[in-house]
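Q: I have two molecules that I believe assemble together. Could you output C-alpha cells for the complex as a whole instead of separate predictions?
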Amino acid sequence: MHILATEGLTKRFPTVTAIDQLTVTVGPGVTGLVGANGAGKSTLIKILLGLLPPTGGRADVLGLDATSRGAEIRRLVGYMPEHECLPPDVSATELVVHLARMSGLPRTAARERAADVLRHVGLAEERYRPVGGYSTGMKQRVKLAQALVHDPKLIFLDEPTNGLDPRGRDEMLTLVRRIGTEFGISVLVTSHLLGELERICDHVIVIDGGRLLRSSAIGEFTQATQAVTVEVDEGLDELAARLAAEGQAVSPQGRMLVVKVLGPETYDAVRDAAADLGLCLIRLEQNRHRIEDVFREEVRAHV
Amino acid sequence: MSEIYDIGYRHYDGPRLGRGYATRALAVHSLRGVFGLGRPARSKLTPFSLAAIMLLPAIVNVATMALIQQRVIQYSGYAVIMQAVVAIFLASQAPTLVAPDLRHRVLPLYLSRPVTIASYVGAKVAAMTVAVFALVAVPLTVMYLGELVVDMPGPPATGEFFGSVVMALALAFLLSAFGLALASFTPRRGLGVASVITVYLLSFASIPLVYGALESTGHDEAASWAWLLNPFWLVDSVQSWLFGTPPHSIEGGYPSGPASAVFLVALVGIGLGALMLRYRKAAAR
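A: Yes, here they are, computed for all two components at once.
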C-alpha cells in the first residue's frame, strides 16, 4: 500500500530541469525527502498538490492523479510552505479558523478544530495575539497548525525546522514524529539535513538535481559503519601506536582516531589501551552515515 | 482538584463542504475586511466615515423634500455628484483586500486548499462590489424611503430610483474589477492607494482637456465621447441610454446608442482579465 507514487516524473522550467525522471513510492508513516537547496523538493511538493503541471511522467497522491484530480487531493492533504506565509495583523486563532473554513469545515467545526490543533502544536494563550509579534518557532507552529486543521490524511511539511534554534528544532521534530505516529497522519517532510530526519523518519528519499539518489528504509541509512571514532585528551600518538601493535586498523583524523571495528574485541582493545596508558577518554562513538556519505557513495557508483 | 487530561489527537469526521462554501466564506470574510469589521477600531474609521459622508446629501435631500417640497439631488445623478467620495473609498479599501495576502505570501495557504485562483479572485471582486454597491445604494434607498414618507406632490420617482440602484451595481462591479486589479499590482498598501487614486484623477482631469480640444475645433459629436473616460460618467451614460434619464455630464450630452454599454462591458472584462493574470503570476512564484 502506498500513499503517493511518481513514475518518470519530470518538470522542466525554461532554464532548469527541476525534476528529472523521478520514480519513487512512499508508504504510510513519516517519510523524509532530503536534498540540497535547489534539489527539487519544493517543486515536487507543488506537483503533488496538483498546483504545477509536470512536463512528463505521472504522480499519484492517495490514489488520485495529481494532474487531473488536484482539487480532490487538496481536500485531503495539508501543506506547510517553506517560506513565511502568515499575515502579521491577525491572531493565530483567527487565521487557523479562517483557513479551516477555506478547507470546507463549517464554522463551529472550524473553531473546535483550530483550538484543538493549536493546543497540539503547543500554542497556549499567545494564540489570541497578532501573529506579527511571534517568534520564529511560534510562527512555524502556526504554519503547522493550519496544515493540520482539516485533519488531512497526509501532510507535506516543507523544511519545518528552517530558522529554528536547536531546541526549537528538537521540539518541531518531536511534533512531526507524533503527527506520524499518534495522530496517524502520513507525513512527507523535507530537509537538507539527513541527520535531523534520521530520528523521526521511517523512510528516507534522497534527491539531488531532481534525480533520485536513494530511497530506502531508515535502518539502512543509519546502519553503523564498521568504525569507531576515539577522542582522548592527549596521548593520541601513543594510543595509535599501541592499538596498531595489537593488530587494529587505525587512522588518525585530526585530533581524533578512527579505528576499524574488526569485532567486539576492538572496543575492549580501545578501552584497555586507554586504561593502561592512563589516558583521559573523551569520546568513543560509532560512525554513522551522513548525507555526505550517501552523496559520496552514489557519485562513486556512477563513475 | 481539577485535572486537565490530554485526550490526545481526535480525528475530524464531520462534513467537508466544497469550493462554493469556501468561496462564499472568503467573500464574506473579505467584505467584513473592507469595513474593518473584526479588526481594530482604526480600520473602521476610514470606511465608516466615508459611508457617513455619502449619506449626508441624502439626508439633506430628505430634509428639503420635507420642508420646502423640493428635490436637491436626483437619484440618477447621485453617484456622479458623489464620485470623489466613492473613488476615495475604492482607493483606500481595495488595497486592504488584496495587498496583505500578496505581501505576506499567504496565497499558497489558500491554493493548497479547495480554493482556486478563479474562486479567490471571484470572492474578492464580489466582496468589493457589494461594499461599493452598499456605499451608493444605501443613500439612494434612504432618499427613496424619505420621499415615500414625506409624500411629495406627484408620484414618487420609483422608476428612476430602481434604475439608479441597478446602475449602482454596474458601477460597483466596474470600479471593483478595476480598483482591485490596480491595487493588486503592488504588494504595498500605500502604493496601491496611490495608484488607484492616480488613475481616477487622470480619468477625471483628462476629460476637460479632451472635451475642450475637440469642442473648440468644432467636433461636438466626438467631444461627447470624452465623458466615457471617467467611470462615473461612463455608467451615467449607460443609465441615460437604458432608462432615459437626463445626462449628468457638466456640459453637453453623451454619445447616443449602446456604445457606452459595450465600452463598460469591455472595461470590466479587461479589469477581471488583468486580475486573473496577476494572480496566476503570483501563484507561480
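A: One point stands out. Chain A has two domains: 4-221, 224-302.
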